[in-house]
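FW: tagging you since you asked about this chain on Friday. Here's the raw sequence from the shared folder, copied in full. Didn't touch anything.
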Amino acid sequence: MVDLPNNQQKLVELVSMKLYLLRHGIAVDQIGGAIQNDSQRPLTKEGIVELERVGLSLKRLGVKAELVVSSPLVRARQTAEIIHAALGSPRNTLISESLSPGGTASDLYKVLRQFVQLNEIFLVGHEPGMSRLAGTLLWCGPDFDITFKKAGICRIDINDVPPTSAGTLKWFLTPKIMSAIAGR
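HL: got it, structure written out here
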């Protein structure tokens, strides 16, 4: 319980949620043949290997994935599946338009509200959406400049959904740093 003006009492729900924002891995550049549009571009072999290293690094760091939420685009879904396999999430990957290009933080909050009982959630998406989401969660405003490399990841802790205070950036790691942690 929290003391409020006029001695009113209100139950305050604290979430204490660890959000891992992950940009998809390296994807093929060309559209053609079976790949008819941008949403169908799959990961390259290099992208898959890099994400497997990221997954190994996260495991070595003791990271858990209670839920993985992904953009519906092929490269993001493949990224989510690799992380899901590496960390052994107990739930299936959840596909959400809120993480696709043009998705909004308010739409993502609607998804996250369903899972406030969870502590560690992965969000797999695209640039510039991941950068914007990080800025929104950290309450940094439009001038905040954090760019996610492909397979780059950060952890931001929040206390409620939607956040009523700035989230806390715990770490931000590039794929190169993750490879060093993996020992490869």
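FW: Confidence is low (pLDDT under 50) at residues 6-12.
HL: agreed, and The longest strand covers residues 17-23.
FW: great, closing this out.
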